[in-house]
Every structure is written in C-alpha cells, then in structure tokens.
Amino acid sequence: RSVMERTVPALKAVPGKLKLEAVKQENGCDVFETESSGGVLTVRGSSGTALCRGFYDFLKTNGLGMVAWDNKDIRWPARIPDTPRRRVASPFRHHYYFNAVTYGYTMPYWTWERWEREIDWMALHGIDMPLALAATEGIAVRVWKRLGLTQKEIDEFYTGPAHLPWQRMGNLVNHDGILNDNWHRDQIAMQHNILRRMKSLGMKPVCPAFSGFVPQGIRRLYPEAKLHRLGWGGWPQKNAAHFLSPEDPLFLHIGSLYMEEWQKEFGKNTYYLADSFNEMELPVNTDDPKTRDQMLSALGEQVYRSISSVNPDAVWVMQGWMFGYQRHIWNADSLKALLSKVPDDQMLLLDLAVDYNKTFWHNGMNWDVFKGFFNKPWVYSVIPNMGGKCAMTGVIDFYANGHLEALESASKGKLAGMGMAPEGIENNPMMFELLYELPWREERFSPDIWLQGYLKARYGDDLSPEVTEAWRALEHTVYNAPKNYQGEGTVESLLCARPGFHLDRTSTWGYAKLFYSPDSTAKAAQLLLSVADRYKGNNNFEYDLVDIVRQSLADKANVLLEEISQSYDRKDKDSFRKQTQQFLGLILSQDSLLSTRKEFSVSSWLSAARSLGTTEEEKKLYEWNASALITVWGDSIAANQGGLHDYSHREWSGLLKDLYYQRWNTFFEQKQQELDGKLDKSTAEPIHFYGMEKAWAEKSKTVDVSGKNGPSVIETAKTVYRSAVE
C-alpha cells in the first residue's frame, strides 16, 4: 500500500478506494488480479511484488500513467473507470534484476532516498529477485581484521566506489582511492534499509558471498597459502587480484567467516552471489581437461560449502556471462565439473545474456550448449545496456518473444526465472518497460500492438498520430539491429569518441556504424517537434523529445564524421573547414539540448558522488572516481591507450562541452593546419588525449548545468534541431 500511495499520492486522501487482497500462487509462480467498480480498485496478489505489479498493470492498461525512474507521470482521475476482472499468472518463479556492474555504472553513489525510489520501481515492475550487494566490503573488512591483516594491507585491496564491482569479481584491486570507515558504516546502514524494504515486499535479494579473492597480505599470515595471481584487461601487476586456490583449506575457512559476519549483521538470507572467473582465464592449464575440471570441481564444492556451512538452506547464485563470452574455456565438460558437487536445489545460474548469444555472437543458446545446465535451476536474462551509455538500443522483435523460445525448448531443464542484467540503468525507458512485461506473458504478441498501449500509458489517451508515427519509425530501425550487425545492438555516438578519421566505434567493444538510415531518427525527431507544444508540461514526452532529438543529432554526427574523413583524404581544405565547424557545432548544440534535463547532466552524476563525502578530501576523491569511470575508466590502462577508455561514455551536458568538444577541436585544428600547409604532418607531435581526459577528471566541477532556469525543454529542442539541420 505504501508503494502504491507513493506512486499515486491521491490514494492517501481517499481511504477505501483501494482494496488489497491475498491470493495463492499458481504452480509456484506469482499471480495478480485487478478489477474496479464504483470507483473502488481491488488488487489481489500472491506476494507484495505481485500486488504492486497488478496495481501498475492497472495504471498502464487504462492509460493512467507510467513510472520510469525520475519521470513519473500519473493521471489518476477523480473516479477510475469500471473494469472487469483481469487475472495474470507469471510462468516464472523468479523475476531477476541488475548486473554486478550496475553497482558501478549507475548505483555507486546512491542514497537511501534513491534506493527507496528504485525498490518502488522494482515492485511496480514485478521484480522479486534483485542483486543486493551494498556493504560487501564492510563485512569483508571485519573478516580481514579477524585474520590479522593490517589496515594498509586492507586498503591496498580495494578500489574507489565506482570500480567496486570489478574488485568484487577479482578483475582488479588497489585502484582509485581508499574506502574508509565512514564509507563502510554508511553502506552497512543503507544495506539494512535495502534488505528490510525488499523483504517486506516479498523480494528474494541476492547477497554477496566469498568468491576466493584475498588481499596479498594473506601471504604474510599464511606463507604456505596457495595463491594464484590473475590478470584482466591489460592492467599492470599491482592491480592484479590474488585468488586463493579452492584446494587450500583456507578457502573454506575464509568463506565461512564471511558468511558468519554477514549473518551476524544482516540476519539469514537465502540467495548468495559468488563469481570467481568473470572474463578471466583459469589459473590452471586449460589445455589439460583433467586438471581444469579437478580445480573447477573443487571450486564449486568449496564455494557451496562455505555458504551452506553457516546457512544450510542457502542457494549459491552465479552469473553466466562468461558461458557465452568465453567458450574457449566454458564448454559442457568444464561447467559440468564446476556444478558436479553442488546439490541441484542449492544453486541458481543466471544465463545473463541470451540476446548476445542469439543476435550478436550467434554461438547457440546456452541452455542447448550446456544441456539444460545439468539440472540446475537457471534464469533467462538479457543485457539491454552496456556501460550506462545513452544510445537507444535493443532488438525489440527478439526481446518480445525470445523467452518463449526458452520456455518451449526441449533443453530448458529447470528454467526458473526471467529478468535482465543491464550494465547501466536510468536510460532507454521504453525497452525497460517492455522487458518487465515479458515475465508476465506466455503468449506471443505483436510489438506494434504493445507499442500503442505503451504510448497511451506514457503520454495519455489523447495520442496524436504524429507521436505514433515517430515511434514506429524508431521501432523498425533503431530498435531492430540486423543479424549481421557487429556492435552489440548499440550505435555509439562518435561525438564522444577519441578523435580520429574513419572511426567505426567510440569504445573498444562498441560500434558506431549505423544499421539504419539517419533519416529514421530525423523523422522521429521532426514528428515529435511538430506536436511538441501540445504536450508541453508532459514530463515523459519532454524527456523522450530530448532523447530522440539527441539520437538524431548523434546519428547526423556519425555520418558527418565520415564525410570529414573523406575531405581530409582528398585534401579538400575548404570542405574540411566547413564540415568540422558543423561537427563542433553539433557537440555544442547537443550540450545545450541535454542541459534542459537533469537525467542528461554530468553534474547530477558528480553531485551524487560528492554528496557521499564527509570531508572535502573524500568529496574530491569520489568526484574523481565518478569522473574517471565515464572517461579514462582506469588511468593506468588509458594512459597506455588501453581498451577501456570511453567505454562508459555518456552524452551528457557538461561532459560534451568541457571534454568532447575540446578533444575534437584540438584534433581538427591540427589537421586543418596540415591541410593549410602550416604544419608538417611527418613531424607534428601526436595529440595525447589521455592528458586532456585526466585533466578534466581531476578538475573540480561543481557548477550546476541542469538548465533549471534556462529556456523550456521544447523551445531549446526546436532551436537546437533547427540549427543542426540548417
């Protein structure tokens, strides 16, 4: 009831107009029912989240509003319409949410206030199995101190807040700051609030367990300990994690200590996450299957034992990204070995990226390759966002009915849940709305029909034809990458790229080649602009207007850069000058447009980071950490032109003007001088973009660029788009 009243405050003023009732699950899966009569809404559900999902379904089905993070737009009437009983049963026991790295790309600086809004969002969308990883480090520090590690040895193990997901998975250590007692105290307090609220709604949070990674100071305390030094992503040795061999008795000892400390602080939980080799090679000879499988069998047994020795009812949860990403390691034999000594009902595998298997890697579905996951329960999941990038992305035709392929498969084994594991959230709201309706559908449906209902819920029943036509243009282009597309479904904006000619990507693993005509996003932008005045004040419409105009300008820039590259190749200095000024103008126009919405402002991200600091030193450290993640990512590898720079690039105001514009302007000026004969190309000093990025990340940026007192969203969008096309 509290979730519903926070969603629709008018309900508080009319007690008796909302009735909540309990019903039983169906085949172990959640159910909800809704009906309204005489101005009274009755919602029935088999859990707290099922009740909330039913309430939200009533809102959307009747065009009464939508909740998308900060863009809540509810149109609750004085008297709700009468509706017949509607019953919906989910075909899945679990409704999963989050990626381990969402805690870096979106959530590292959240307060309880922000978490409360997210848990409300989860409940309304029917999510009952979220990752709950706050305070992972606060509990581990207690274990390290019990073992006798010094504070210095502990500090060298950890990273700044935004990089903690990769520290937890053993990808890197000793990077970007120290986690002090203030951080641990606040995170533990917040985790109490998070778990209390999640469990009060019937959610089944997934909490952390010991994965095998230890501070190198363990060598001092246990000289005979069997440790493996692992590497990831080209990072130097000082940032490489130490993995404690599962064949060492110390593994079980430390794992059990961690579970003891966790339960002592937070009480008993059921689901615990432990990932030991995410995107990393195994510390054994993988060419020797016997040695490999022996180690993996021991690892599975010890992780499970370390959890169950303290909590016999616990279930080990493991992310399965590497099952598709690293098929040179993970095949049917190696995974079978890992699972061989874990009871079937005490493990849950997250098949994290079925969309990558199906539409990008084309390497077969994991439930087929791994023989139904050898009788272990598993969750069907997709990854609709990488790195928190802003681009519209998602293969809507596959998403709409792909889960039915799994439900109907002879190899589905113990398929138990469905959800998604976005690397970043607070973007692309249409795709998130679609994906969390799917776990409540077991019949095929048309995305075209679904989209019409979505638009009415998002903007209101009085829907103009131009709005529908605009979204149809996006649905059949931006949101449907072809089978041969190389870029994981995301068209990256080259406005955010380290400058160069004939670029096909902004980040190492992305792609910037358009698989659709830029006319499609231009058409969508023009159609929305043509009716924008009619929707003035409609928060969801104004957000979408900015986002779609942003996508259109980004697409225009990608095409323009190739024209610039060709002008440079043929030494056409006049065309080059004109085109580069146009490109730079697009960056400034984009910055101006995005400054009208706080969701697209870098100051929102940085202010959140600074706010968690209790001293000026902490504030600066957290701001640097936040700045680095979305630019250089990790300074050690970026300085050497490593692959993670700009991976988490954001088309955000403040960042566009103060960094991306400066990079491109410096690059174009040098190339113009070459064409004008003022600079010898063979002797010109190369531009060190890392230095520019590091300077931006280190600079304090406390100016609010959210545009609260500037022109209206619609006026700015019209002005910006007009200047871009003229």
Give the key terms:
single chain; 726 residues; alpha/beta; eight-stranded parallel beta sheet; 45% helix
What does it look like?
By secondary structure, the chain is α/β, with parallel strands linked by helices. It is 45% helix and 10% strand. The chain has an eight-stranded parallel β-sheet. The chain has a four-stranded mixed β-sheet with strand order 1-3-2-6, with helices on one face. The longest helix has 31 residues, at 539-569. The mean pLDDT is 94.
* Structural class designation: alpha/beta
Q: What is the averaged pLDDT score?
A: 94
Main pleated-sheet profile: 8 strands, parallel
Radius of gyration: 26 Å
Lateral arrangement of strands in the main beta sheet? 8-7-17-16-15-14-13-9
Shape category: globular
Hey, roughly how much beta strand do the residues contain? 5-15%
